[in-house]
Design brief:
Strand order of the largest sheet: 2-1-3-4-5-11
Largest sheet: 6 strands, parallel
Distance between the termini: 69 Å
Number of strands: 12
Radius of gyration: 26 Å
Structural class: alpha/beta
Order of helices and strands: HHHHEHEHEHEEHEHEHEHEEHEE
Number of helices: 12
């Protein structure tokens, strides 16, 4: 059957096409009796509004782009928490009738395509995920004037964001180790072009600086392999290390493996604390102490910030709290 048009609905309701259009687009200036007859005609005819035509009137697409700007190696998108973020974002947006357009931007070419897509008016707003320090995408999108919210801080100061209290979480971890009597506390960092890595490193350094202890730093990239290699390097450079704060749980798990292979008892010889409290943290041997930060809550807060921006709300950043979950590794 041929799909009924706006004109057919208007004829059935006995009103003008403009009146039908105003009712369908949710305008509140239409008299209640007109709304009633139009909606009755819509139901009788099985009319489905033309989304493209409606968007020309409302200037809304009911779509949001979730842009994951991560290098091909997938430092962040390979993290098990990434799926939690994507699921949460999709659920929150679908609950308010928004379509999710997931876009991976792994190169200069793909980022340029994102810019063209957004500039084409295909979405009402953009949520940015997994941004690295030198990434030009946030500033480029911000110049377009479209509502943007970032999952974590960006180099573009005019982009609102939702971030963890990374420095505060690192402080929780290091103070816990100090309270356990640890004297030579090392850290394994994440990629230092990520804000969260730098903030966790600074929280670690500031806490040790307050006690007059020196920093012992090894570089990682948020993967298990890098955590294992960094732990191996720490033991070679400073065999007396008696505690390690890893900037995420995957690296902490890698560190646990190296310590086991080296014959170091955890926590007797070396205590280990991670960050994120992923599900696997409770099932390592020994179970891993970790700074708990709810990625689902952070994702939800980012979606709500973006939806508020789309409606003209304030551009204030949001900082999420942490807590330390103490287990056998420390």
């Amino acid at each position: 059957m041929k799909r009924p048009t706006l004109a057919v609905v208007a004829a059935r309701a006995g009103v003008s096409k403009s009146s039908v259009s105003r009712v369908i687009n949710g305008e509140t200036t239409v008299a209640p009796e007109i709304q009633d007859v139009v909606m009755q005609a819509v139901r009788e005819l099985g009319y489905v509004p033309n989304a493209a035509a409606r968007n020309l009137v409302t200037r809304r697409t009911d779509a949001v782009a979730v842009v994951v700007s991560d290098p091909p190696k997938g430092v962040v998108s390979d993290d098990p928490l990434f799926s939690t973020v994507v699921r949460t974002v999709s659920r929150e947006l679908e609950a308010v009738g928004r379509r999710v357009v997931l876009i991976l931007a792994e190169s200069d070419e793909s980022r340029a395509r994102v810019e063209r897509y957004v500039a084409g008016g295909h979405v009402d707003g953009v949520m940015l995920v997994a941004l690295h320090g030198a990434d030009p995408l946030p500033a480029a999108l911000a110049r377009m004037g479209l509502p943007i919210a970032s999952f974590n801080r960006t180099a573009a100061t005019d982009v609102p964001y939702v971030a963890l209290d990374n420095a505060g979480g690192a402080e929780l971890a290091v103070r816990h180790l100090l309270e356990r009597g640890r004297r030579r506390i090392a850290t394994i960092t994440g990629p230092l072009d990520l804000y969260e890595s730098r903030e966790r490193l600074e929280g670690y350094r500031a806490t040790l600086r307050d006690t007059g202890r020196r920093s012992i730093v090894a570089l990682g990239d948020f993967t298990r392999v890098s955590g294992a290699e960094a732990m191996r390097q720490l033991l070679e450079d400073d065999p007396d290390v008696d505690a390690v704060f890893a900037a995420n749980d995957l690296m902490a798990i890698g560190a646990l493996r190296t310590l086991h292979q080296a014959g170091r008892r955890v926590p007797d010889d070396v205590a280990v604390v991670g960050f994120d409290d992923i599900e696997a943290a409770a099932y390592t041997t020994p179970a891993l102490t970790s700074v708990r930060s709810s990625m689902a809550d952070q994702a939800t807060a980012t979606v709500r910030l973006l939806l508020a921006l789309i409606e003209g709300g304030p551009r204030k950043p949001v900082i999420m709290p942490n807590e330390l979950v103490v287990r056998e590794s420390s």
